[in-house]
Amino acid sequence: MRLPRTATVTITVVTAIAWLLTALLGADSRAAVIMGVIPARLSGLIELTPAVPAWLTPLTSTLVHGGGLHLALNMLMLVWCGTQVERILGAGPLVFLYAVGAYTAAIAQWLVDPASATPMIGASGAISAIIGAFALSFGQQKKIVSSAALNRSLNALWLLAAWVVLQVMTGLLAGTQGFLLATPAHIGGFIAGLLLQRPLLIWRYRNA
């Protein structure tokens, strides 16, 4: 079966190959340091050489994972939600959403602990933005209150909570000691997805 050439599939394949190369070379820990988001670097408190420029690490950190289980869960969620979001928003907006999610996640984590020297790795912050957009686009709105808009928000929050719990459980099972699987980053990315879904949808169909 031939996979479709979409932005979602491309991001998934590139991420998987990057992790596989570091795993085969036994460079997981080194990659986390030179490619991961280190809040203290963003604050200018520490310097690393050689290393990816600090401003670029929100993107490069998405290529580094704490183990096969961490990678598998992230890529499963990316493919599951990303293909559907890409179908309604388009390839370009999906890539934009993924990148903004990565940076928003990094900023959220930095705001919580700007002096932390622990690398934050993984694509879950960027994927959280995709999940946020997915939640607004396809989430079944259970009637909790009378307001439809509030119901949509509450159901989106339930999806966020489930995503954060899955990430924490994955971190515990994978034993990613020394790496940061950060809840603030997940929340930041998710909020970015919620805020950008409608503007990106309007932009795509602006001439329809």
CATH superfamily: Rhomboid-like
Radius of gyration: 17 Å
Structural category is mainly alpha
Q: Which residues sit in consecutive blocks of at least 5 with pLDDT less than 50?
A: none
CATH class: Mainly Alpha
Average pLDDT taken over every residue: 84
Number of domains: 1
Shape by Cα distribution: globular
Percent of residues in β-strands: under 5%
Distance between the termini: 34 Å
**Count of separate DSSP helical elements:** 9
Write down the CATH topology: Rhomboid-like fold
Your description of this structure?
The protein has 208 residues and is an all-alpha fold. The protein has a single domain (7-204), classed as Rhomboid-like (Rhomboid-like fold). The chain is 68% helix and 0% strand. The protein contains nine helices and no strands. It has helices at 7-24, 28-35, 39-42, 57-60, 68-89, 91-112, 124-138, 148-174, 183-204. The chain is globular and about 50 Å long.
